[in-house]
Amino acid sequence: MFFVASLPVALLLLQCFAGCSADSSGWPSEDDSTLSAHGHTRTVIISDQGSSVPVPETDIIQQETVWLNGGDETASHEVSHKYHGPVQELKLNICSQSSTAFSGICSRAIDGNTNQNYRKLSCTHTKTERGWWQARLTSRAHIKRIQIYNRRDCCANRLRNFYITVDGHKCAEYHSSKAFSVKTFNCDRVGAVVRIHNRMSAPLTLCEVRVFGHPLSGAVQELKLSHCSQSSTAFSGICSRAIDGNNNQNYRKHSCTHTNAGRNWWQARLTSRAHIRRIQIFNRQDCCPNRLRSFYITVDGHKCAEYHSSKAFSVKTFNCDRVGELVRIDSKIIGYFTLCEVRVFGDPVSLRSKSPAKARGRTVRKLGLGHCRQSSTAFSGVCSRAIDGNTSQNYRKHSCTHTEIERGWWQARLTR
Questions:
Q1: Mean pLDDT score across all residues of the chain
Q2: Assigned architecture for domain 230-363
Q3: CB within 10 Å: which end of the chain, N or C, has fewer?
Q4: pLDDT at position 336, please?
């Protein structure tokens, strides 16, 4: 059985109302909850210890508008999603947090270890502040529920006043004088970035965060960028800050790139070739946003978008209809160049369509090179410059190798 919904209110057709009561230890535990859709009713148990997932018996086809960003000039697109079968657990990765204390790195909340004892190296920890933690889904999804595991060996009451957002839109909050052990929050949002904001000035500790919902079939996914480079680096603004998952637009938060003055560029490579649909850029906001006002974007050397305006933007999404893997942003003006985050959305390309070129009936595809060596090195021309993704042919751009005067050689090994 299926149902076609054309109004936003249809998003509420499938929703689980989870209660919470205290167990014998005084800690809240999840009660049985009822899920109902199209006359079918099922009992749902979300356990503190297990991994039970709600199981609705329904197919839903719905149409909705998906907003790619909440910046100055928001781009949207209409997509159709088909939800089939049970709500499933969605994978989180690429995490970040406001700060790190006592080795409590952000990835501890998404490592699959639900141990609630900090000494078991399973919980995050920030400094004393109104901190935040966030992680990104591997692709956009309709998020139905978010489950949080609190610390139990100590200090559980630190996690008693916070709210949760999905792509910047609030979907749940918690405020109580009573601490919880494990709690599941209803959340009816479409997005990719899950963020937890602490309202108190206290360390933020999360022992695990789990997300349940429906993957979006037919929707573009976020594509992972890596292996970046830029024309130069100033003030410690390394290129990787634009692809670290931290979209904070304040330079002092170590989240933005920075070059020397010049006609600059920045680039990064997708992990595999893809049909790129949209590219989203986060500009610096604490200072100097007008530096990013005249530039163009290329994919594998082919222009797909450009921007030229006297008006600065905060976050902007550019349409781009190109197949490739190397995303490059070139400034048209002479000055400093800063990017706080670059996100790419599109569809992965199957091996069979990675290149139009064919040899003997087989599809030709690009192979990765690594572990290089050369006969000698002169003038800082290390071997890795030939496989760093930087195709600039000007030696002064630190993009070419150099040996001594000899019958030299260079080699690299395929990554697989």
A1: 79
A2: Sandwich (2.60)
A3: C
A4: 96
- Model confidence over 140-160: pLDDT tens digits? 889 999 999 999 999 999 999
- How far CA 245 is from CA of 2, 133, 197, 238, 248, in Å, comes to 37, 11, 16, 14, 9
Q: Where in the chain is the domain with CATH 2.60.120.260?
A: 2-219, 230-363
At residue 137, what are phi and psi to the nearest 5 degrees? -70, 155
The fold adopted by the segment(s) 2-219 is Jelly Rolls (2.60.120)
pTM listed for this prediction: 0.45
Residue numbers of the chain with a pLDDT score lower than 50? 1-82, 84, 351-363, 416
Question: Cα torsion for 195, 317, 277, 164, to the nearest 10°?
Answer: 10
